[in-house]
Amino acid sequence: MAALSIHERKRLRQIGHVLNPVVMIGGQGLTDAVIEETLRALNDHELIKVKIAGEDREARTATIDAIVEATGAQAVQKIGKIVLLYKKAAKQNQHLSNLVRHAHLAN
């Protein structure tokens, strides 16, 4: 997957600002069910926020790296316990895609 340009990242961050986390990774860590749910959310919404519990910064970073690798998504932004993930859907759903629904924010 090609790296995002500075302008694309900025646009995605603007859209992501209004989003709430749709996937929460808790004490169980990165399970197959969490990866599956993240893939489903990425396929539906293309741009999602994931919240990672835990106080250990290095563990959160490792979890982010693992979920990016497992899903093939790109980490657009990391702030504290929240990561903004982007993965272009094979077939964009006009009703669910955050890129379509919040396109007016990036103009």
Automatic annotation (TrEMBL):
Keywords: RNA-binding. InterPro entries: RNA-binding_CRM, RNA-binding_domain, RNA-binding_YhbY, YhbY-like_sf. Signal peptide: none annotated. Residues 2-98 form the CRM domain. One of its GO terms (molecular function) is RNA binding. The keyword RNA-binding applies. It comes from the Bacteria. PANTHER family: RNA-BINDING PROTEIN YHBY. This is CRM domain-containing protein. It comes from Acinetobacter calcoaceticus ANC 3811. The lineage of its organism: Bacteria, Pseudomonadati, Pseudomonadota, Gammaproteobacteria, Moraxellales.
